[in-house]
Amino acid sequence: MLSDEVITADSAEAALWDAIVVPGEIKERLRNQAVLSLLVRPDLPFAVTALHGLCTLYGPPGTGKTTLARGLPAQVARYVGGGAVRRIEINPHGLMSAEHGQSQQRVSELLGEYVPGLASDGVPTVVILDEVESMVVARSAASLAANPADVHRATDAVLTALDLNAAEHPHLFFVATSNFTTALDEAFLSRSDAAIFVPLPGPDALREILASTLLTLAGKYPALGELARSSAMDRIAEAAHGLDGRRTRKVVFEALAQRLDTVLDPGSLTEGDLATAVRNAVAETSQSEVSHAAH
């Protein structure tokens, strides 16, 4: 449900940030918002800044939101005193309880007491709330069949904790990720100092993801480096339109798994193999979207 570690600028964790292929302005905005919050808020009262120390990353699944959040501390560490940033990761799914009233109590204890306690040494801290929609459901849309009283209580507990931490613990910076912003409570979104959309990758990003995956494998199978640098990658990337970043990386391995020859000798992967795997992945993604829309 929760993990806690301190990360420095030269940590191997920096690779998480580099591995995600998104428009540069997304990374810059997230990093800058975190640095601004951690540098400015300790010296100014909340009444002046109105900063809650909260950023929401939203967008389709598989676009790298969680990995960006996990890689953020290493990027921020070089700009803060001490050169280190604590990272606390929270899985909200583990907080929510079917027992009446338990979700509110757990949220209050974790965000209002336990997290500030972990960070009581004053070290700048990034707190990650992954898939936060399970924690701050939009109260205005809560179904009567889904025990809206508990939904209200849990959301109220999150908002109360955010307000408390904003005022009393300015060295805390929260990063929330969400695949479904329409499901998030309006009061939570209003507390976000920045809401950053992380889109599906475009053709250039798809090409970079595919090529970087092949080039990593080329260390052991050199022929894949030739494929990664070939003009065929432009056509394959265009055909991959609609895939998220996670599936795009996996599609290289799906291509390898299509034939026993390429399983035994990955270096024998061809343009045709990769193109076929991409077409199959796009077709499966489209079919899944149609199925979800039907339901």
Structure in words:
It is a single chain. The protein is of the alpha/beta class. The chain is built from 13 helices and six strands. The chain has a six-stranded mixed beta sheet with strand order 1-3-4-5-2-6, sandwiched between helices. α6 links the parallel β4 and β5. α2 crosses α4, α10 packs parallel to α13 and α11 crosses α13. The longest helix has 24 residues.
Topology:
Elements: E1 2-8, H1 14-19, H2 24-40, H3 46-49, E2 54-58, H4 65-76, E3 84-90, H5 102-118, E4 125-129, H6 148-168, E5 172-178, H7 186-191, E6 194-197, H8 203-218, H9 223-228, H10 232-239, H11 245-256, H12 260-264, H13 271-294
What profile does the largest beta sheet have? 6 strands, mixed
Number of strands: 6
The amount of beta strand, in percent, is: 5-15%
Bulk shape: elongated
The average pLDDT value, as a whole number, equals 89
Q: State the helix count.
A: 13
The radius of gyration computed from the alpha-carbon positions, rounded to a whole number of angstroms, is: 22 Å
For the largest beta sheet, what order do the strands appear in spatially?
Answer: 1-3-4-5-2-6
Order of helices and strands: EHHHEHEHEHEHEHHHHHH
Helical content stands at 40-55%
List low-confidence stretches: none
Q: Measure the end-to-end span.
A: 31 Å
Decide which structural class fits the backbone. alpha/beta
